[in-house]
């Protein structure tokens, strides 16, 4: 069993047929730390084996993404991370150690 959740609704792209219901960087919201902590505790309580992280674009919520991934280690496997690949393009100005994106 796997749960899929959106870490953010924010996205850096404007795909006209977005199936994720993503919103602009300005309009979208990301899950706050307290909510992510609550989800992780719930995942641990039910013994959930794996999660899939989606968005929006998860990498625009870099700090929250890295924090969740770090805290999830040993609790739940992150089996899937859905991205539009902006982190691998010449448009990316952030770094994995930074919360800066564009």
TrEMBL record:
Gene3D superfamilies: Aldolase class I (3.20.20.70). InterPro entries: Aldolase_TIM, rSAM, rSAM_sf. It comes from Nonomuraea angiospora. This is Molybdenum cofactor biosynthesis enzyme MoaA. The keyword Metal-binding applies. The keyword Metal-binding applies. Keywords: Iron, Iron-sulfur, Metal-binding, S-adenosyl-L-methionine. It holds the Pfam family Fer4_12.
């Amino acid at each position: 069993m796997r749960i899929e959740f959106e870490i953010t609704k924010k996205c850096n792209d404007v795909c006209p047929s977005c199936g994720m219901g993503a919103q602009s960087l300005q309009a979208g919201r990301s899950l706050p730390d307290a909510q992510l902590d609550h989800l992780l505790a719930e995942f641990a309580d039910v013994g959930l084996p794996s999660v899939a992280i989606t968005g929006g674009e998860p990498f625009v919520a870099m700090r929250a993404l890295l924090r969740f991934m770090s805290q999830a280690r040993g609790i739940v496997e992150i089996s899937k991370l859905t991205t539009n690949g902006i982190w691998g393009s010449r448009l990316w100005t952030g770094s994995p150690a930074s919360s800066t994106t564009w």
